Amino acid sequence: MKVVLSVGGSLLNPGKPDFDFIEKLTSLLKRLKTKYRFAVVCGGGVPAREQASHIRKLGGSEFLADETAILCTRMNALLMMASLGDDAYPSLAESFREAVGAMNSGKIVLMGGTIPGITTDTDAALLAEGVGAARIVNLSNVDGVYTSDPRKNKDAKKMSRMGFIQLVELASKYDKRKAGTRFIFDLIACKLIARSGIETHFVYGKNLDELQRAIEGKTHSGTVVK
Q1: Which of 95, 94, 97, 84 is nearest to 38 (CA)?
Q2: At what angle do helices 208-215 and 19-32 cross, to 10 degrees?
């Protein structure tokens, strides 16, 4: 069974690499790799946002800002590769075609971003379509999908289960592509999983017991979209 993980950069690198988290996550993946074929898409975290900001301050384009952020995602993916050792596919997949081919190796495939203009959420959704994944598991510093940003609205309610249309509607409301209007999964990614009917789980990434349950398709305290 193929599973795509979308790992938030805020977990991997909240300003500096979180070695403890990376080692615990890769240990779990090593343990489960006999039952699952994994592809892991890594976000950029604080370094990606900082470097993109530096590009803008120097007058660079949004395209160039995206390119530098993509490099940061790939640096995080290389940290995961180092921790996985021989269990990792020996090179980063820089395109979906590379990743699809690498999945047949039995190794854990690692990716960062691919092209300017799309997020690693969208990369994960496209990759899941390409490899025919049974599910996507989204790991972030939020423990599920909420009716609004729980960090800003104390009345926000977590959804334990929801349909694809419901997720797309929420993303359409909150993903405005502007600073301060972030949503847990971007709108394009939501539409992609909806068109292909890919079961998607949202969990707090540092709760590895919950993560394992999500990988296995079992009940957990996060959000399931299907």
Answers
A1: 84
A2: 30
The pTM of the whole model exceeds 0.90: yes
Helix or strand or coil: residue 8?
Answer: coil
Please state, rounded to an integer, the average pLDDT across all residues of the chain.
Answer: 94
CA 128 to chain centre: 11
DSSP 88-114: B-SS-B-SHHHHHHHGGGSSBEEE---
Task: Assess if CATH 3.40.50.300 describes domain 2-225.
Answer: no
Domain ranges of the chain: 2-225
Whether the per-residue pLDDT at 197 is higher than 90: the answer is yes
39: which strand partners? Answer: 4, 109
DSSP E strands in 56-154: the ranges are 109-111, 135-140, 145-146
